[in-house]
Each structure stands twice: as structure tokens, then as C-alpha cells.
Amino acid sequence: MAVLGQTPGLSAREVAERTAMDKVQVSRAVQSLLAAERLTRVAHARDGRVAHLSLSAKGQAIYDDVVPLALKLEKRFLSVLNEDEQKSLDMLLA
Fold first, then answer.
1. What is the pLDDT along the chain (94 residues), one digit of tens a residue?
2. What is the pTM of this model?
3. CB 3.0–4.6 Å: which of 6, 47, 65, 81 could bond 85 by disulfide?
């Protein structure tokens, strides 16, 4: 949901490429989120094997609630690190 909230219209393959999840995990997550009506799926106009995923209104509402909380926690966690330590952490995580 976080990836699609930032970049709507990705395929499941593209979501897998942008996360630490493998294709099977992404496929299961997509099916679960579709069943919960948190995602929408639109088939690609020229390639029926590809579908573009986006957050539904329900999914967007959850995303809009969670992101500010996550950013607040991130700021709190990073506040104990100086600028160099934060840069090092970013490099390690990347």
C-alpha cells in the first residue's frame, strides 16, 4: 500500500521490484487487498497479462491516516542521530 500510495498505477511486478517482497508475496498481498477493497486493478490496454494497481478510496483513506503517523515515528527515531549518522543509516538501508 505504501508503494502504491506514492506511485499509483504500478504493476505487481513493479511493486515487487521496489520492495523487499518477492513476486509470490506481492501476488498474495494484492489478492488480499483487492478482496478487502483497498486496491483497484485495471488491465493494461495492450497487454492483458499486465494490470495497473492503485489504491481505492478505502485504501487511500488508510494510507492518508498511516503516513503522517509513520513520518512522525521516523522523525522521532532519527532524532537521536546526528546528520552524519542519518546519512550512514540511509546508505546502509539502501
1. 999 999 999 999 999 999 888 999 999 999 999 999 999 999 877 877 889 999 999 999 999 999 999 999 999 999 999 999 999 999 998 8
2. 0.79
3. 81
Give the C-alpha separation, 85 to 78, whole Å.
9
Chain-centre distance for alpha carbon 9? 11
Domains of the chain: 2-93 (1.10.10.10)
Alpha carbons within 13 angstroms on the beta-carbon side of residue 22 total: 1
- 44 three-state secondary structure: coil
Amino acid identity of 21?
M
**Rounded to the nearest 5 degrees, what angle is found at the Cα of 56, between the Cα atoms of 50 and 59?**
115
Q: What are residue 38's phi and psi, to 5 degrees?
A: -100, -10
Please tell me the distance from the alpha carbon of residue 12 to that of residue 24, in angstroms, as a whole number.
10
List phi, psi (to 5°) of 14.
-65, -35
